[in-house]
Amino acid sequence: MNDNQLLRYSRQIMLPMCDIEGQQKLLAARVLIVGAGGLGSPASIYLAASGVGNITIYDDDEVDLSNLQRQIAHHTADIGMDKVISTHQTLNKLNPDINVRAVKQRLAGEQLDSEVLKADVVLDCSDNFATRFAINKACVKHQTALVSGAAIRFEGQVSVFTPGKNNSPCYNCLYNSDGDEQQNCASNGVIAPITGIVGSIQAMETMKLIMAVGETLTGRLLLIDGLTMEFNSMKLKKNPLCPTCSR
Predict the structure, then answer these.
(1) 193: closest CA among 227, 220, 231, 148?
(2) Which of 108, 145, 187, 189 has the maximum number of C-beta atoms within 10 A of its C-beta?
(3) How many other C-beta atoms can be found within 10 angstroms of the C-beta atom of residue 123?
(4) Which residues carry out catalysis?
(5) Domain coverage including residue 183
(6) pLDDT tens for residues 61-117?
(7) Is the residue at 193 inside a domain?
(8) Is there a domain that residue 240 lies in?
(9) What count of other Cβ atoms lies within 10 Å of the Cβ of residue 177?
(10) 112: Cβ contacts below 8 Å, ≥ 6 apart
(11) pLDDT band at 1 (very low <50, low <70, confident <90, very high)
């Protein structure tokens, strides 16, 4: 690290559980973020600010006026721009020292397989079950850590899946593949800050995984109720009959 980096990340480096070694792990890390919307925005911003050195973002959508209520990586002047380009610009302005790769594409098939294989941690910030199950399957195949988040109305949830470690369940152990695709923000609404809370927790869990510190949400589902501001944690067990991870 150079002098500028030591100063930029000084508040993290002074933490004993981080120190120089942890910051160097962050700088060397490769993170894949699927989705540049309500969750991907805060998650990517905090990861970039914290010095995660290599961030790849996939999204095939463009910035719309209705996105700006919660998708904080985008600005009014970005309406009509590709979300990945807008996010790329925001992250580069925040921290020009990191490498941000932005791809306008719905990540699927062989490309998904290839990107998951290259990543140290994958953040699922998507908004549909088909993508979530595909990401989970690829992460199980390559034993890549997955940080999954979701937000709707005033509610949020986060979990971490670490295939091959700690007897971790996978996303398919939690949800079966016939999930209700109508359960999304476009049809049910969402309060803006809940996406920030969930995305920030995803960033925190990602950094803990990279630095190998603390206790992650592996084997637990964190449930957030924004109306009562109650956080509850449910234990998750590996499903011996899971079609994805029990094979």
Answers:
(1) 227
(2) 145
(3) 29
(4) 185
(5) 3-235
(6) 999 999 999 999 999 999 999 999 999 999 999 999 999 999 999 999 999 999 999
(7) yes
(8) no
(9) 13
(10) 134, 135, 138
(11) confident
Helix axes 129-142, 109-118, angle to 10 degrees: 50
Residue 180 pLDDT > 70, yes or no? no
Residue 118 is assigned to a structural domain of this protein: yes
Residue-wise pLDDT tens digits, 82-91:
999 999 999 9
Q: pTM of the predicted model, to two decimals?
A: 0.93
* 41 close to 75: Cβ distance less than 8 angstroms: no
Bridge-based pairing state of the strands 54-59 and 30-34:
parallel
Asked whether the CA dihedral 223, 228, 229, 230 is positive or negative, the reply is negative
Residue 183 pLDDT greater than 70, yes or no: no
Mean pLDDT computed over every residue of the chain: 93
In a domain, 124, yes or no: yes
Q: Which CATH number is 76's domain given?
A: 3.40.50.720
